[in-house]
Design a protein that fits this description.
The structure is a homodimer. Chain A contains 16 helices and 18 strands. Chain A is α+β, with helices and mostly antiparallel strands. Chain A folds into 4 domains: 85 residues, 2-Layer Sandwich (Uridine Diphospho-n-acetylenolpyruvylglucosamine Reductase, domain 2), CATH 3.30.43; 119 residues, Uridine Diphospho-n-acetylenolpyruvylglucosamine Reductase, domain 3, CATH 3.30.465.10; 109 residues, Alpha-Beta Plaits (2-Layer Sandwich); 116 residues, 2-Layer Sandwich (Alpha-Beta Plaits). In chain A, a hairpin with a 4-residue loop joins strand 17 and strand 18. In chain A, helix 1 packs antiparallel against helix 3 and helix 13 runs antiparallel to helix 14. The longest helix of chain A is centred in the C-terminal third of the chain and has 20 residues. The radius of gyration of chain A is 23 Å and the shape is globular. At the A-B interface, strand 9, helix 7, helix 8, helix 10 and helix 16 of A face strand 9, helix 7, helix 8, helix 10 and helix 16 of B. Chains A, B: GO terms for molecular function: FAD binding; oxidoreductase activity. Chains A, B: Its cofactor is FAD. Chains A, B: Keywords: FAD, Flavoprotein, Oxidoreductase. Chains A, B: Belongs to the FAD-binding oxidoreductase/transferase type 4 family.
Amino acid sequence: MTPLPTTLDSELRSLLGDGWRTDESERLTYAFDNSRRQALPDAVALPTTREQVVGLVRACRAARVPVIARGRGTNTTGAAVPVAGGVVVSFERMNRILDIRPGDRCAVVEPGVLNGDLQAALKPHGLFWPPDPTSAGYSSVGGNLACNAGGPRAVKYGATRDNVLALTAVTGTGDLIHCGTATTKGATGYDLQRLLVGSEGTLALIVEASLRLTPSPQSRRALRAIYRDVSSAAQAVARLMAQPVTPSMLEFMDADAVRLARDVGGADLPRDAGALLMIEADGDAQTLPHDIEALMRAADGEGLVSLDDAADEATREKLWAARKALSPSLRTLAPGKINEDVVVPVSRIPQLVDGVHALSREFDLPIVCFGHAGNGNLHVNLLYHPDDDAQSARAHAAMARVFALTLSLGGTLSGEHGIGLAKREFMPQAIDAPTLAMMRAVKAAFDPDGILNPGKLLPD
Amino acid sequence: MTPLPTTLDSELRSLLGDGWRTDESERLTYAFDNSRRQALPDAVALPTTREQVVGLVRACRAARVPVIARGRGTNTTGAAVPVAGGVVVSFERMNRILDIRPGDRCAVVEPGVLNGDLQAALKPHGLFWPPDPTSAGYSSVGGNLACNAGGPRAVKYGATRDNVLALTAVTGTGDLIHCGTATTKGATGYDLQRLLVGSEGTLALIVEASLRLTPSPQSRRALRAIYRDVSSAAQAVARLMAQPVTPSMLEFMDADAVRLARDVGGADLPRDAGALLMIEADGDAQTLPHDIEALMRAADGEGLVSLDDAADEATREKLWAARKALSPSLRTLAPGKINEDVVVPVSRIPQLVDGVHALSREFDLPIVCFGHAGNGNLHVNLLYHPDDDAQSARAHAAMARVFALTLSLGGTLSGEHGIGLAKREFMPQAIDAPTLAMMRAVKAAFDPDGILNPGKLLPD
């Protein structure tokens, strides 16, 4: 790694003052993300204004120094790791909620606001912002935007991209652009704001977002459906999604996930579940019972073993706690984990899960599947011992086959985690050459010198 | 207009056979759209396969001849008028529904399928595709995609852009690209498919679309709320949109629109209405009464004159018929009409309508407002005598002021009609120079030689 040019260092120090850090301990703090990969940046910037971001990008562009936007680093793909060095721009100081307009169902925020803090501020207005990744309490809105974060509620309320009205951003040329309008409809020019969502900091740095809000439902109720096998559960998912009452969550666990939720997570679950669906509806007190009835009718069918209405909040919470504990509890099976979040059309879930279990046998490694079935978005967790070279190699070979299987079923590499470093090499399998070339051309239009988050999302 | 190069003519004749037309009567048929503007193309192509579209674009690119995609020409902005000559590509022969997958809530179609034909095919599956422009019976899905068409249902179900999963398209370089995946969630690379929606044929020609479907509600019910004045009605709109039951339609009429609906459209409406809201909810028989109650509570408030539940379908249909007849009935006021579809945040509707009425007085011209209030998307109809030069000039000056007013209220030029030729000159007021430059760079990435629908959307 080459050190920053001295002139750039002093220029940015005078631009950012206390928000410019070059000592190694600070740089180490911003070297990694939740992917457990790491690379030391040359400096860390903590801007407080959009003008500072513009100045920083222009200065870095002139010196051809990489600029890596960062929220709170909760992403799992390495998208925030500065693999080519350069300046990490952490938005932790641009964390103001600028406006909440309940009548317009709109909130205007800086990118560093935590998702959880925003939800708390919206609560008194009877509104919420739908994206609810597991990290919601400590991930930033800017990070959610960069990754197009989802979560269980996406089945009813959409992912991040579906819940944004307008963005203000700084491109790779240091130009401040205004994309979209704070209206729920628009047909004025190209839709640049949805293009920026999910672009992982490779096209522009978002400095302000107008978010689309949804009125909070008054109440919710959960069902727990246990099926003889995966295929029966998957057919229930298709039935649930083909009728008019869209569940507010529709989560799937395979038999291994159920076992872990019971043995490690402490959930009260039977020993013989072939698969489990957690089905939730939300609404008001009058309509909810009818919606739950409709969901119960759709959940019922061939292979259903039991269907319970978790009527009280404590039972519901306990089941969700076990679901949330699944990810960490996987480490009890093996210390190494590859967690991918492939997505397929809902009707293809049985083939995906069956195929993954066949790969588990072929490669002699545990693979546990659970996730957001209503979107066909499954977390495929491949477990192995990282110190065992043969196991590591098998794990990575098996994951490549999981991707190939997903693509053969009309699905794609990622439903909500993104590409980052982790899946970049698989992009040419998922996206054909002319389309990848088009993405590269779009990248060049926003960032002609390639300074924004180099080495991410698009393959070399 | 220069005639087509002879070599191009013969190349495309052999590529398209009977689907290549150069006689003047055929060219005249494709010279105009619903904007009433017209310009003669040099030729008309009626492709039946994507391979023909690829071949055509490549040949036209080599000869630097414009290519103008066309659905059924129902748009009102001139977006399909070949102002620079060239080849109009009408997708009327690529009109197959390729697949309907109810469990995936997905339909795969060619662009020439009529919206109405698609809805009829979906009905037996209990599904529908949400975009419902007034032209739905005779406009094509490809045209809906090109314009990001909306309609009254968009308030609950979103506009076209919100209801697309994947697109296959031919860029200005004649490359076939595949954008998006037929899954309801995705975080794999840049979101090119939403960028193509609403781009009015200036970035690529869509040759296949995977559409996101929604289960059909079992029933619907409508309310008619009459208010003392526009401000009371607009405040009711904000209340209606801030509570959890989202109406399936929320339409607004100002006093002049109510009068026209009564006197010309034959609707049973009072003489003293200051403003009217048509509020509709859909759902199943059990939940609908509760939803209607919630909407009635929200509609009630300061300035409400009457609130009627159009319980029977005949009453409901009669009111909608009067609403749909509004646009043609405007011609009874004056033969010339400028119909714009500006959009503002919902809370700004009172200022917009008050401001428009002030402009009506200032310019001494009738202006009638109605439209999709739940999205803040109002159709502002400016009426004048086109043969009267002074009136024409005043009408155009007033419309420029309507746009300026809209922008000052945080809104934008178009909610669902698009830009085309009609609003192109106003784009620099709506979109700042760096953002317009970014849009031009995106255009250049897709269409480096500028052959796709030149003279549209972006200003010179």
